[in-house]
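Fold it.
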Amino acid sequence: MKKYYRLTGIIILIFILTRIDYRLMAAQLSRINTLLFLLINFLLLPAIFFKALRWNSLLKTQGVEYPFRDALASYLGAIFAGIVTPGRVGEFTKAVYLKNEKDVPFAKSLASIALDRVFDLYLLILIGGIGILRIIPEKVNLPLKIIFAVIFVCLPALFLFKKKFFLKAASEVYPRGFLKFTSRFLKEKPKEFFSHLNHLLLHQNVIIPLLLTVIAYGIYFLHNYLLARLLFIPISFTAVVFFIAIVNLASILPISIFGIGIRDVSLVYFFSLKGLSQESALAYSFLHFCSFYFLNGIVCYFGWALKEKNAATHTKNGRHLSKEKTE
């Protein structure tokens, strides 16, 4: 039965759809200006640009010289691979690109990719934690709020900056998840991977990818806010930031496909706190899905196609050189 657990999100969505007014939702979606929707989605490009720049910065810290245009194409291709694979594990194809193009050991490249993802989670946990504190009813006493603040603000900092704490936690989590998936690629021992990861964490240049993460997510949250305004949903930018951060964290749960159902029920709940209808929440969720999984997927596909073409050329040239040497 475990293989059907991802259907949970679909079941949740079906339940929600039985309780809405389709005419009201359709009327709201019909108000969308298609041209503006397409223009707003161009904001995803600079967001990806800064994330690719962040990964490129991590590679430079490792002493890996990888042209930014190649890093950007790899990042786009990995996002597409992540969209079409369970648990977004396809995003680790960047390690394959580095191995093929620069002969970078998998342990080294996977460390940069893992930390690249940690920066995303770190920021989402911080913002989501603050958002949860804002959502907690006023009747909850101050000491409890302080405890929540410590959990959601200090704990991520410990994971990011405290070597022993991070490595101990990672040694419990990664062997069952990340290292299990990458075991066929990771020729080196796990200690080698953690050594590279620790080098990146404690390097003085770690502040640069942190700043690039803030910039990328600033653009990302602006995009989400503009989607709400496109639907004429009266919601503040701050509320969108908190809600989307929490929704993204909830969507990580391995009980849905593409976050379907989990994202919808979360938005229905959060929108209700602002007095907004579930039809508005579902219309926004639908627009969000089209934006990030459809339009964004099309753009990222070109990055993936380019990398696959380069990989095929690289393999062909390698075989040709090998044949010449043999002769």
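The first helix runs from residue 7 to 17.
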